[in-house]
Design a protein that fits this description.
Largest sheet: 5 strands, mixed
Helix content: 40-55%
CATH superfamily of the largest domain: ATPase, nucleotide binding domain
Number of helices: 10
Mean pLDDT: 96
Number of strands: 10
Order of helices and strands: EEEHEHEHEEEHHHHHEHEH
Strand order of the largest sheet: 3-2-1-4-5
Bound molecules: adenosine-5'-triphosphate, magnesium ion
Shape: globular
Distance between the termini: 38 Å
CATH class of the largest domain: Alpha Beta
Strand content: 15-25%
Structural class: alpha/beta
CATH topology of the largest domain: Nucleotidyltransferase, domain 5
Number of domains: 2
Low-confidence stretches: none
Radius of gyration: 21 Å
Amino acid sequence: MSSPSVILGIETSCDDTAAAVIVDGKLASSVVSSQQIHAIYGGVVPEVASRAHEKWLVTVVEKALADAGVSKSDLTGLAVTHGPGLIGSLMVGVSFTKALSVGLGIPFVGVNHLEGHLASLMLTDPAPPFPHLCLVVSGGHTQLMQIDGFASYRILGATRDDAAGEAFDKVGKILGLEYPAGPKIDQLAAGGNTAYHAFPRTRLKGYDYSFSGIKTSVLYYLNAFPEKERDQILTDSMADVCASFQEAVVDMLVAPVKAAIRETGVKQIGLVGGVSANSRLRARMKQLTDSVGGALFVPEMTLCMDNAAMIAAAGHVRLTQNESSPLTLTADPALKLI
Ligand SMILES: Nc1ncnc2c1ncn2[C@@H]1O[C@H](COP(=O)(O)OP(=O)(O)OP(=O)(O)O)[C@@H](O)[C@H]1O
Ligand SMILES: [Mg+2]
């Protein structure tokens, strides 16, 4: 019997320090240390994020190994996010992984963070068959893709301005909510009226998205009231404003997917990235795939947000194909998927 493949994945592209172990393609552990400190600044402070990664990465890796019941000497390969993301944050993970690779004498592979989000679907049971369409909705990206096989990607459409997660966070800031506001808006919207206010839906030709308009319209809607009245709305009708805003974003996200199903005939749909945790988006995407006799594939909640399990999953495939990265690999904040 051949010895098992034991892959350690490392993710430090933004403000989550994460490590995970995959044994023979199966997830054995996943540890994420989220940096709460950024909430007081209303957004991620790059310098603070890099320092926190450096401080916590060893502890997070040791916990991932212990949770998986393996030691460093059992590892057969390493996978690390090398872009896109914050340069200082990426450098911590990449440098650490290169050093570990040399120290242990095992190969490592650089993984694109977005490929990681797409690979999170490989950890769902069952995983979606190829081809499938995938809506990538995160803090930095909004893309509708057709996935024909591992690393065989076609971008059908993408946002021309803000990402969906960015829209949630920016509108959250306008509403006085803590960063990141997506989860809070989701929670508040559950008790609100989606028909309270009709925020405009931007629908571009083809499969592209735009979310800058909705952000501005929330701001204009509130600023149209005198300060006292505005404060009253935020006190009495916060849930309704959140529900109306969220419904508009979900409408805008779902419409191009519906068109793509019609035009490509592909009915197996993946939903990945931080915003895939949104309960209303999940429900509406499920309604859509049910209505066409297709299927929706969404990672479990802990794998929607940034994590290293998805990086290890993508790395596992690449390393199994005998791919590895050279020690000259560098962090690339603007790394493109294709
Ligand atoms: N339940 C939710 N509803 C809406 N948005 C959510 C929810 N949970 C998380 N988000 C949003 O998801 C985003 C974070 O997702 P993720 O961690 O994948 O993004 P990122 O890694 O910063 O960006 P990228 O993956 O594009 O580099 C934040 O904008 C957050 O507000
Ligand atoms: Mg992400």
